[in-house]
From TrEMBL:
It comes from Halovenus rubra. It holds the Pfam family DUF5813. This is DUF5813 family protein.
Length: 166
């Protein structure tokens, strides 16, 4: 597909340095979780769908996680992810948010519509980074974590203020 055949929302995603074209939509390359963004043209602008797949707590650890801990962790994550629009520099009203426990993974989906597609990619990126940061903040101490979560924790604990964000 040539640039002229793409919608202006897709062109903005394809020209953004954090996104790369994928088989379906655009993949975000700045986070460790799988993030795909797709767009559809709507009468009032462009609807963006941000799909994020992260490991569940039990899949992120080398240890057994009790069902109560897993359930409480998921419910807390679900509540906190609803605040993603507050992390953006522009006002964003969600069309929909879904946070689904898939067993080994957690599937997060944000949908929002923008009349002007120039800020859409940055909002999508902010949502994905918010999910990653919120995930790390919600890590339960006392478990041995595996990749990619162990890498996130290692990166979070390096620097001047070393220590995890717990």
């Amino acid at each position: 597909m040539t640039d002229a055949e793409r919608s202006s929302a897709d062109r903005n995603l394809s020209h953004h340095n954090a996104f790369e074209q994928a088989d379906t939509g655009y993949r975000l390359s700045t986070v460790v979780f799988d993030v795909t963004v797709t767009t559809t043209e709507q009468p009032d602008g462009f609807q963006y769908t941000v799909d994020i797949v992260a490991p569940s707590l039990s899949a992120a650890t080398a240890d057994d996680v009790g069902q109560t801990v897993q359930t409480d962790w998921f419910e807390t994550l679900e509540r906190r992810l609803a605040d993603a629009p507050n992390a953006t520099r522009t006002s964003v009203e969600l069309d929909e948010i879904q946070v689904t426990d898939q067993g080994e993974t957690v599937s997060i989906q944000y949908r929002f519509t923008r009349p002007d597609p120039t800020v859409g990619p940055d909002i999508c990126k902010t949502f994905a980074e918010y999910v990653e940061g919120t995930y790390v903040e919600g890590i339960v101490p006392g478990y041995e974590y595996v990749s990619p979560v162990s890498n996130l924790l290692s990166n979070a604990s390096q620097g001047e203020n070393s220590g995890t964000p717990l």
